[in-house]
Design brief:
2 copies of one chain form a homodimer. Chain A is of the alpha+beta class. Chain A has a single domain, classed as 4-Layer Sandwich (Glutamine Phosphoribosylpyrophosphate, subunit 1, domain 1), CATH 3.60.20. Chain A is built from 10 helices and 13 strands. The first copy, chain A, has helices at residues 2-16, 49-71, 76-89, 133-143, 151-160, 174-182, 189-200, 271-276, 279-290, 294-308, and strands at residues 32-40, 109-115, 121-127, 148-150, 218-223, 229-235, 245-246, 256-258, 263-269, 313-319, 324-328, 332-339, 345-347. In chain A, the strands form 2 sheets. In chain A, strands 4-3-2-6-5-1-12-13 form an 8-stranded mixed beta sheet. The first copy, chain A, is globular, with a radius of gyration of 19 Å. At the A-B interface, strand 3, strand 4, helix 5, strand 7 and helix 8 of A face strand 3, strand 4, helix 5, strand 7 and helix 8 of B. Strand 4 of chain A pairs antiparallel with strand 7 of chain B, so a sheet runs across the interface.
Chain lengths: 349, 349
């Protein structure tokens, strides 16, 4: 672990010297994956070296699984699901296990996936007992002629499709419960008791981590061997959210988009900023209609257009040539990247 | 009424001679409104002259109210809400009263609105007891920092904001109940009894109309005196829908978009086709990034890009110059248009 951490730190330091130019140089790749696990106020020093190493290791694990799958010929959509499942299963991120908690004490999750070859997409929101929301989104895409199912309806569909369900207590982690309680909008005693009881049902194996991180949506963009693109995103949304609020993650065009002619994109940040600018589709359109490169388009979106609306967040993307791009205007963004060389890069700041 | 119908028929016939070129000629307008009330298999002869006259009259009423408001200086977003409310209140369309019925016998409605000056937007879906869903969408836009609320959460927010609620039986109409029963996916006796009991609570004043129409989403795009654009859309979704399915109407970028630099758009048709192409935002981006006129961009979207995905539907739009455009690839689309001249055009086929 120490050796791994040391190697990853070097990559991080090297990439941090040129914060705006850190995206890999333009080059074609037979296949590639770009992963994010949230952008936000990730100032250096927020985490201890040991904690940082945990994040790097989990991102590397996800990238390695995706790489192995792509190398053996799995499809972009299969890889999107496999990568995101690993991040959903980890309590380190705000998606699946580790999701933030709504104001009423319940956990509600959103996810989406899109196939760049067919433009088919699947999206669910406000689900509470689906272990891996991204698997349900893929089922909507592949097993229904619709794209977007919500709440109890989405869960009913997932049940028909044999998607794995789990007791809602599974998603509660000490870190998120502590953050939920710290927020002064915490509600009545009954709700607090409910949240405590959910956490108590966990058996204590959940690692405690600092809770500075307020955004930790996960997602990835993939190009496979066959030249097909796909993207997916999964999130627990906003801490103390109300009114079954939905952000950009399950909105096709905003938080997720994939189109073989241009690129695949997954976003993270203040969801409303991505919805009002339809951020992912705008990047695709700047490439298609204005002839921008992937890097020019993502840079324009996050550092020019977002400046006009004081937008906040970041995105990872892969284009039809396997070129990878990531951009963010926050202090940091958990991210990883790998192409057919097999060399995995992970970074936070 | 006969005279009115005669005049409107002339407009319709004239415009039908050039089905692709029917959009008004490019010209600047101080203000303008484009309204649609659904595109679909509207073959000539589906309606009797008397029935057609009812549709023309309701579209004209909505356009007249919008015109009067714009003339006296009301804002684009105010006009969007006022126009859509009139259509929601009519049993002629699939939005508000007259909405289609879900497979489980309940009525679930979606709506969205967007302000082209600020890019602020509001969106709700799967609401069951809000009399005018478009008013709730506007409240989300103006009274919260979020954009998209769903289901019971959206209703809870609307209640806090003093939005008008109504008994769910209000939305049931003989036409839609008959169509719901005709569909062979009609469910168990208990559900049928529920639907019958909802309809029985109506006092018989609801006009019976033929039920050939399968799509009747309503929406409008507006440019006001101050040069600001806005768009909104409202729908009951799909007959016999399941799993709290959401179409394009409440998805910003897909069914609704407004941006002062380009245009305001509202769409209708097979929602998934508009979501996967992010149709409204794509039109805006073809104008912004490719320099297309409004009419070129809407035409490209509906008659070129939709052909590639066998997409189905139509859209109405207004650009920053007050130029209006409408396009559809179905047999017909209920629509109306008015500019500062005050001359209202309505058409179906």
């Amino acid at each position: 672990m120490r050796i791994l951490f040391f190697c990853l730190t070097i990559v991080t330091i090297v990439s941090c010297n040129k914060p705006q130019a850190e995206t890999p140089k333009p080059e074609q790749h037979a296949f590639a994956i770009a992963i994010h696990a949230g952008a936000g106020a990730l100032k250096k020093g927020s985490y201890t070296p040991e904690e940082e190493a945990l994040y790097h290791a989990k991102l590397k694990e996800a990238a390695q699984v995706g790489y192995d799958m792509l190398k053996r010929g799995d499809s972009a959509t299969q890889v999107v699901v496999a990568v995101i499942k690993i991040l959903e299963d980890s309590p380190l991120f705000n998606a699946g296990k580790g999701s933030v908690i709504s104001n009423d004490g319940h956990i509600r999750m959103d996810a989406s996936i899109m196939n760049g070859k067919t433009l088919d997409a699947g999206s669910i929101n406000n689900v509470q007992t689906i272990k891996n929301p991204i698997t349900a989104a893929k089922a909507v895409m592949e097993k229904s002629k619709y794209i977007m199912f919500t709440g109890a309806g989405a869960e009913a569909f997932a049940r028909e499709q044999g998607i794995e369900f789990i007791d809602p207590s599974y998603f509660y982690t000490p870190r998120q419960v502590a953050r939920w309680k710290e927020d002064k909008t915490a509600t009545d005693e009954k709700t607090i008791h409910y949240v405590d009881s959910m956490l108590a049902l966990q058996n204590g194996t959940t690692a405690w981590l600092p809770y500075e991180l307020s955004l930790g949506t996960v997602g990835c963009a993939v190009k496979d061997k066959y030249g097909n693109l796909a993207a997916g995103t999964s999130t627990g949304g906003l801490m103390h959210k109300k009114f079954d609020r939905v952000g950009d993650s399950p909105v096709i065009g905003a938080g997720t988009y994939a189109y073989n002619k241009t690129c695949a994109i997954s976003c993270t940040g203040t969801g409303e900023d991505f919805i009002k600018t339809v951020a992912a589709k705008t990047v695709s359109d700047m490439m298609e209609f204005k002839g921008m490169s992937l890097d020019e388009a993502t840079h324009n979106m996050i550092h020019v257009r977002f400046k006009e609306i004081t937008g906040d967040g970041g995105m990872v993307a892969v284009d039809a040539n396997g070129q990878v791009s990531w951009q963010y205007n926050s202090d940091g963004m958990f991210r990883a990247f790998v192409n057919e060389s097999g060399e995995i890069t992970t970074a936070i700041y």
